Known about the structure:
The chain has 15 helices and 24 strands. With 472 residues, the protein is α/β, with parallel strands linked by helices. It folds into three domains: 2-240, 4-Layer Sandwich (Metallo-beta-lactamase, Chain A); 249-358, Rhodanese-like domain (Oxidized Rhodanese, domain 1); 363-458, Oxidized Rhodanese, domain 1 (3-Layer(aba) Sandwich), CATH 3.40.250.10.
Amino acid sequence: MILQQIYLGCLSHASYLLGDEETGTGVVVDPQRDVDVYVDKARALGLHIRHVILTHFHADFVAGHLELRARTGAIIHLGAAAQAEYEFSPLAEGAHLQFGKLRIDVLETPGHTPESICLLVYDLERSPEVPQAVLTGDTLFVGDVGRPDLMVASGASASELAGQLYDSLHQKLLRLPDSTLVYPAHGAGSACGKNLGPETFSTLGQQRRGNGMLQPMSREEFVRRASSDLPSAPPYFAFAAELNRRERPTLERSLHQELRPLTLDEVLARQARGAQLLDVREPAAYAAGHLPGSVSIGLGGRYASWAGTVLERERPIVLIAEPGREVEAAMRLGRIGFDQVAGFLQGGPGALAPRPELLRRTARVQARQLAAELAGPRPPVVVDVRGPGERASSRIPGSLHLPLDQLRSRAAEVPRDRRVVLHCASGYRSMIAASLLEPAGLADLADLDGGMEAWLRTQPAPVFPSGAERGQ
């Protein structure tokens, strides 16, 4: 019996390849949309992918079930409560799939979503009674449980779904042996939970002891905790969840249509007609020179998640990338269903060299320089674009807090009468913020090079009472 986890760090996403050597059968659970990794691994292991299972309709990425169906002829399986445009085999409570020494039993576990399922994995050579692992999807994470508010459009409230989640955990998952390996669909950094741990797998015994949401409490208390203090969901989540229900073009087909080289004049013409220019270089390169109005989201960070947060889904996207990285940039957008790429700048940033008059630069300040300016007679306004949890642990005195995912809607709160310095943890998100604010007409805008990490290396980190600073 084969069980391999495939972890995609930029989306905090875990998928799984299961296989039976005796029959050569491969099963993929919760695949990412670019499916070469599964096809290649299966081939190396002597497996043929015959089945693909979604534990639920994911909201944070577009799954690769249709891509695997097209590539391998795999049968798609969903929970019995699911409704989808494509043909699928429903998996109800107690159903099982068996291939040689591999058996998969189905638990219906509504709560995160109404159609959620968990999969018990048995290595029959070891034991037909004791599961080796449970693939928990977004029902149970390492250190947390799935949030119940992402599918309220289905007709159930977050409180109702949280109650179902409590029942699923206590009536099904917590009855499994402590030795059962827990393999979730996400790790730390995912917005599908609140407090996910850094590990990508655990055991049920470890979670029973250390997961705060599995400690003894009433159903009412669980519902209150699970449905309160939830972070805002990125705006693309509802769209991605809907795409996972629909019959849609495969990623391969979309990329074939999207990867068109465009001259600089064509790029500017498309921008004038409403296209979004997405510059995927790293922050330092963007700061050194970029087209006005372009949005900076570097490939080196959580690129797709931030693209889905700050870009508009209805408007076409033109990519500005170093030559050879256009495919990666478009493919990673495709992972969240952003298939509206209209092309890329032919020649990449080098195509801008003959037209220096078009370029704009973003100032970057060092931490010591910023400290000196803050101590001067006319200090700049410092805008912190990190999340609330990060700010709770450290902050620059007097700074304004505008989280990046709220920046566009709250841009009017940024003062226009003074120099503005943006910062995040390292400089990645603050450059995104600078590119969003630049078209708003801020005359003196800068980015803190190295972010809070650089600041803390040169300055003390005062602790403030909760709410004592502006923007709390």
